């Protein structure tokens, strides 16, 4: 006679407050700075200085709700929905081509006043796939042909769809995060750094030089003053903003570059407005909050109750870390200009909601760290 044992209920402990408070502060600063950076631009374009603030506030509320929901149920339930989510993401990535482009790029699904950027979803779709599949793969990840190539192929498929939208930056984020998760899963260093890394660098260089506008950005990064009124304009304005801010900044709301000098200052280059208004001190505070988030995210990954939780935490933390690093590097002229928003701070509804939901999953994983200790004692 078969004995049916009741499933053991997973104990849910407290969340990681380091992650929670760092994200809460970044979100609050983001809302304030979106209003400060966009007020003049919004008044000129929409005749309402609070136009972007209102939209960002709505997105923030929805994002907080999404985070609360994501942290309330057992994250292992995501496993059974992984394949449907992966399949559902593909038509969303293709649907963007049914809508009019924005500045030559087709990245958004726009219906009425609502817009969705499917590439933001694709980043996390790849993460949940990698976490689920690599847990099953186990030590098999140490084999290159069957343990590395299949994952690069799947991630490359989603990255290619994103790249077709003229979004090399997010496609690069997907592949970089894939590399990090494979490393965390136990992939051999000779495979990752001897083969995968050089191939990814070569691919990024090829695509960066394959399009005229990308090649122009790359060349202007070396000396933006060669085309100060064209491709180098935005980066130069960023330098002016950061330089004017000095150590302590000009004061909240006192930016000069946001008065139609910096194109759409509330988006990808909002960090330069932060530097202008809050100075080096403000910039260091923002960077410190991201460092705390990354540190606590890694800590959660190391203490997760299982491999799935570890890889999921690594992937979510890596997405936020890579994007924040790229954005700050671009704004400070440390790498060529590319369109990557600063998580939790840059204006953008779908990106904010999806990032907050992902943080909810990360907090969910952190709630089950105590359960891991219980299992070890049994």
UniProtKB/TrEMBL annotation:
Catalysis performed (reactions): [GlcNAc-(1->4)-Mur2Ac(oyl-L-Ala-gamma-D-Glu-L-Lys-D-Ala-D-Ala)](n)-di-trans,octa-cis-undecaprenyl diphosphate + beta-D-GlcNAc-(1->4)-Mur2Ac(oyl-L-Ala-gamma-D-Glu-L-Lys-D-Ala-D-Ala)-di-trans,octa-cis-undecaprenyl diphosphate = [GlcNAc-(1->4)-Mur2Ac(oyl-L-Ala-gamma-D-Glu-L-Lys-D-Ala-D-Ala)](n+1)-di-trans,octa-cis-undecaprenyl diphosphate + di-trans,octa-cis-undecaprenyl diphosphate + H(+)
Protein name: Probable peptidoglycan glycosyltransferase FtsW
Family per record: Belongs to the SEDS family. FtsW subfamily.
GO cellular component entries: cell division site; plasma membrane
Pfam families listed in its UniProt record: FTSW_RODA_SPOVE (PF01098)
Function: Peptidoglycan polymerase that is essential for cell division.
Record-listed E.C. numbers: 2.4.99.28
Topology versus the membrane: Multi-pass membrane protein
Pathway: Cell wall biogenesis; peptidoglycan biosynthesis
Keyword Phosphoprotein recorded: no
Residues passing through the membrane, by range: 20-45, 57-75, 81-100, 144-161, 168-186, 192-211, 232-253, 273-295, 307-332, 344-365
The organism of origin for this protein: Clostridium saccharoperbutylacetonicum N1-4(HMT)
Keywords assigned: Cell cycle, Cell division, Cell membrane, Cell shape, Cell wall biogenesis/degradation, Glycosyltransferase, Membrane, Peptidoglycan synthesis, Transferase, Transmembrane, Transmembrane helix
EC class name: transferase
Key word Disulfide bond present: no
Single biological process term from Gene Ontology: peptidoglycan biosynthetic process
Localization per Swiss-Prot or TrEMBL: Cell membrane
């Amino acid at each position: 006679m078969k004995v049916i044992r009741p499933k053991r209920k997973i104990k849910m402990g407290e969340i990681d407050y380091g992650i929670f408070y760092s994200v809460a502060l970044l979100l609050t600063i983001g809302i304030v700075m979106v209003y400060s950076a966009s007020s003049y631009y919004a008044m000129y374009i929409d005749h309402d200085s609070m136009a972007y603030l209102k939209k960002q506030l709505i997105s923030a509320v929805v994002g907080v709700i999404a985070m609360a929901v994501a942290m309330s149920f057992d994250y292992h339930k995501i496993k059974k929905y992984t394949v449907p989510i992966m399949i559902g993401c593909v038509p969303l990535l293709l649907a963007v081509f049914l809508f009019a482009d924005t500045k030559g790029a087709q990245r958004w699904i726009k219906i009425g006043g609502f817009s969705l950027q499917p590439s933001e979803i694709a980043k996390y779709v790849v993460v949940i796939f990698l976490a689920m599949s690599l847990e099953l793969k186990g030590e098999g990840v140490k084999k290159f042909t069957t343990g590395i190539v299949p994952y690069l192929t799947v991630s490359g498929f989603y990255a290619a769809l994103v790249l077709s939208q003229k979004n090399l930056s997010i496609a690069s984020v997907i592949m970089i995060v894939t590399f990090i998760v494979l490393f965390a899963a136990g992939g051999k260093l000779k495979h990752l750094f001897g083969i995968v890394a050089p191939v990814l660098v070569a691919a990024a260089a090829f695509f960066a030089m394959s399009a005229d506008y990308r090649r122009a950005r790359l060349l202007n990064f070396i000396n933006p003053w060669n085309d100060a009124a064209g491709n180098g304009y935005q980066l130069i304005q960023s330098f002016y903003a950061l330089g004017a801010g000095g150590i302590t900044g000009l004061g909240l709301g006192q930016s000069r570059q946001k008065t139609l000098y910096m194109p759409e200052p509330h988006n990808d280059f909002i960090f330069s407005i932060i530097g202008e208004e809050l100075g080096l001190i403000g910039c260091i505070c923002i960077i410190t909050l991201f460092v705390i988030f990354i540190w606590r995210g890694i800590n959660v990954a190391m203490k997760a109750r299982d491999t799935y939780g570890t890889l999921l935490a690594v992937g979510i933390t890596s997405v936020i870390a890579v994007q924040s690093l790229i954005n700050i590097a671009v704004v400070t002229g440390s790498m060529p200009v590319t369109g990557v928003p600063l998580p939790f701070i840059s204006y953008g509804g779908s990106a904010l909601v999806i990032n907050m939901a992902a943080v909810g999953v990360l907090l969910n994983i952190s709630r089950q760290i105590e359960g891991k200790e219980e299992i070890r004692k049994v």
